[in-house]
Amino acid sequence: MTKVKKVFIWIIVLGISLCLVLALKIYNFGWNSKAEKSQSIIILGCSVYGETPSPFLKARIEEGYRLYKEGYADYIIASGGQGPGENISEAEAMKRYLVNKGVPEDAIIKEDLSTSTMENLEQSKRIMEERGFDKAIVVSNKFHLKRASLMAKKTGIDASFSGAFVTEHKEKEYYYFLREILALFKFYIVKR
């Protein structure tokens, strides 16, 4: 076997090993995270179809609502700006959904300036400081929680985490789980 082939094989083996390690980190964190009592629940934004939350956003909202109803926190920070194809911000879609579920409007704080997970958390941290909150529960899909935890730490949010899994869209969950491996790798390199 030539030296070039050996190097090529080692690169492939290292790449596969790295992907497996990152996949395990994502899986373990997402499926083992537990919410802790806090002042606020930060629901990270996701797509809105016109004015309707996408199935992934709906699952996140339902998880945040469950935590709120079970007394984990008194406030919900609905975090997400308005993206392409969205008639309203993700924060507004979350607020409307939660109000329809019976959550008082004054318990929902809209953060509608962000366009990425990092911005979600930076803007939510600003709101937490303004309100005097020192602890939060971050809610997203399970596959997203590991990277969100690193971003929360970077922004200085003392957080626990709780994730949603959309059973009726398993294929998309698996697809985004695989995509998250690359996103996590990128975060470790560029820290964003």
Automatic annotation (TrEMBL):
Q: Residues in domain DUF218?
A: 40-182
Q: Does the keyword Zinc apply?
A: no
Sorted UniProt keywords: Membrane, Transmembrane, Transmembrane helix
Instruction: State the source organism's domain of life.
Output: Bacteria
**Where, by residue number, does the polypeptide cross the bilayer?**
7-27
User: What is the protein name for this chain?
Assistant: YdcF family protein
